[in-house]
Amino acid sequence: MPAPKSRKGSAYISILAATMLIIMLAAVILSITAVSRRLTAHYSDYIGLYDLAVAGNEQALFLLIQSLDANRNDISYRAWQQLKTDEYIAFIPTDGGLKLDTYLRGEFGRIFIEKAMNALRDTMHENFNRHLFMYQLEWGIDTIIDTSTRTIMDSYSAVTTLYACETCFRFHIDTGIRRYTGDDPGTQAIVEATINWRHAGLQEMVLDAYTMFILKSAGTYFPDFSNPPAYGENLILFLDGFTLQMLESLRIQIGIHPRRREAWGC
After folding, report:
1. From the CA atom positions of the chain, what is the Rg in Å?
2. Close Cβ partners of 29 (under 8 Å, ≥ 6 residues apart)
3. pTM here?
4. pLDDT tens for residues 24-45?
């Protein structure tokens, strides 16, 4: 007995759906295979470049922190002098000395970072070459590996570019690096990052008897101590310390020119 037409139609649709599914799966498999083959073919062009580019950014951060530490005491002193000139100072007692209230701590941090950015811009030429609004550090690595059958030689050329943003008080940085096989350049890898400020504990500043006399004459509030310091003794003022940190250092672009200053939104 012949099958009803409705059953024939359902069977035809089922076979058509299965065929389309098989074709789609085959297309996906072929696409994945093609991408994998392309990645495998170019893997040797940028193997290890990501880690080297991150190291270039970290090297620039290290140089900035070195310069900051060398000028930290002077920056803190100038920030404190501006704060006590611009603001009414009221101290809060703490273990072993004095500290500023929440508002004044925020103002001191703002002034410190502003002066630190200016100080770092003034000293960046010591470690970096200036190019218009940017600072660059060119560096490279040559490696030689001797094996029992042959000698493997690799050459890497990199440029680390640093830009100090005047309005957002942070640094933008990227390192572009490529591997050379003989005179032939390989694919360039670029890692971008932001260098920002973070709180880093407290630093001490001595308030001697003369400084305290000047501050009191200017109306500065000193808290009452259960055991006030004797004449000629010093008090310790605890001020916030700040240092630099790397952010967004895991962003990588392969073979694309770095965004540089134009797209940093400053």
Report:
1. 31
2. none
3. 0.72
4. 766 666 565 544 444 444 445 5
